[in-house]
């Protein structure tokens, strides 16, 4: 449960930032107040100014501080500020269908539509782009949204000069958001590091040591290597750099651990159904991977009919039903003839997996299919500049835990769960007490297959969906179950997350393929040491 | 032993007779008759049949461990591929200066990767006897190490099957890596000659065919001798009642390990004969599916008979050749159906059909 707590904690920490960060569309308030003649004229002058003159003009527009200034500058940066060829008037052109919707950049007055050929973009270059970024950031410092303000301060890191440092210093006491204040402190420290007295520089370097901003490390590195600086300053910068880098690598490690958790939850979803059919019923189902594949294809088919944002709530129960029904069918038609002959079961279900793969290949084409990600699952949660967690992985971690908890609940609190446990512990006694064991077998198998189907929906959000999807996970899933200890769902849970994290932590060191090989070799050796897995069953159940 | 036992086992006798006839007739019809003759066997067919013979040898080896000792290995493809790689390395070194880059020492893919010298594990492979030694030693050593660990800790049944599959899967991933020094994805190919004989020449191909037939006959006789010996009876006892055999005082692990290593060596030899005939070895040979296909050969032919395994390998691969040529979509349906059919309806395989009819009559 520790890791569930971690997830909740991470979500709570940065909840307001969950939405994807997109640039604000440049919208001009329709009721703009009266405009000073000069800056408005400057906007029109941009059309004919040329690059160097425009550098002056944008500063003038910014300094005037009109409410429309930010949208004009943003438009210039994004290329939506264009010139109408017919009369040379500067307009904001926003795409609407095939044409552009024109508005006056100053008054916001609608100017009708125009086609691409009617308009001419006002050119900018990299110097101007950098300048624009800085100016827009300064104008955004008063934005009501703290996220915007913080982004604005961070945008200023690159283009800090005495003017913007002063601006930030004035802004600092007015600021009530702690995150923005921290960003301003870093900006001021960066400014001090560049321009202050030696003692101020040393203090600034000390302050910067706690930051993980990439810019900070670049600046500290520059100071540390700068031979014209006093030795004490350079030493302090070097120390600060080392501390900052240590912090960054810590966060990198945390990010890798998160990737590992998400890989582990994928393994968990793939293995948990297997833990039931293999662990509880003792049936080796090599077609288990194909149930994952069926679930993933269900998600694909559902998306052909249902809007993407709503497809997953539909696909998840449907995938459970589809894969579960396939599982019940398989158990009734094939597996029940093979109970007690594990090797034969293995071969027969392998045949089923080949047939299901070829079936999907014939019906859907052998090519991979793309399952779209709903908008509420795309984007990422940014914890800090060095650590951001992608939302789809976060959701999958949470989802797999939910599935696990739901499964435990079914096993523990329902009549069916009770019968399932009874049959798996002592079939003869359960039958004597009136449990219809054949029905329980079929339903148990269906449950395992259905969970695999649900896992397939989750997988479809991470990888492309193809006929070989199941193959990619079946070996891993078996190893997870065996590693965790057969017949033990908590063992499967621990094993999946352990292997996922171990795999991802090794990846940066030895590379992805070698990491995978090492994990396989580790499990092979581990099984030699403890043939019954991490958490072996004890007592009479072992002999059954 | 001796002659009378052949009467009890007409299938095995038939296998040897068929092998003897084929080993003489096929090269003769291929080499002696003109190409336009009706009875001429095309070069393509010689190679194809040679391939089947190698598969049959691997199947006999697998039957030895599965049919007689109950060890279902889903990783025998790994031994096959390792034997093949050992042979491929020899053939690679024989290319010499005739490679695309004309480097006398380094194979093309190493030149391509900018390697300056031959890795230590490639040393010696220019000598044929050394390569042959490796064909036997590498699969044998892997089987010994793996089997020693697995059997000592009594990993058996399904667990063993799954970790053998993991073993071949891990090897596949490893051999796909370029820096392993085995040609990565492309594997080893573009071979020129074996012991100075041009690999493209019909005479060389006929020679390899005969060698494969002899290897299969030899492998079969060896496996048969093993299962008919006293040790073979212990193997069967282990298969049917492992714990009881242990309680009777047999060192079960030793028997299992010995037969597993022997089987791996035979499979490696099959792989080594296979590579010069098909002209390529790549990491795809390690794919778990290949190993599982081997199991279905044995299961279809009839496990625990040895000659049934050879028969199954021939039948399944012939069907595969026909079906993948005519209806590629159908092959996997067919193979999958075969798995289900064999396990549910034909537990004794094709050989069992005959035995069953006799027992009914």
Summarize the structure in words.
The complex is a heterodimer of chains A (544) and B (361). In chain A, strands 4-3-2-1-5 form a five-stranded antiparallel sheet. Chain A has a two-stranded antiparallel ribbon with strand order 6-7. Chain A has three domains: 24-127, no CATH class; 152-229, no CATH class; 254-377 and 387-471, no CATH class. The longest helix of chain A is centred in the middle third of the chain and has 50 residues, at 231-280. Chain A has 544 residues and is of the alpha+beta class. In chain A, helix 5 packs antiparallel against helix 6 (146-156) and helix 8 runs antiparallel to helix 9 (198-208). Chain A is 67% helix and 6% strand. Chain B is mostly helical and 361 residues long. Chain B has one domain: ABC transporter involved in vitamin B12 uptake, BtuC, CATH 1.10.3470. Helix content of chain B is 71%, strand content 2%. Chain B contains 15 helices and four strands. In chain B, the strands form two sheets. Chain B has a two-stranded antiparallel ribbon with strand order 1-4. Chain B has a two-stranded antiparallel sheet with strand order 2-3. In chain B, helix 4 (76-95) crosses helix 11. The two termini of chain B are 28 Å apart. The mean pLDDT of chain B is 86.
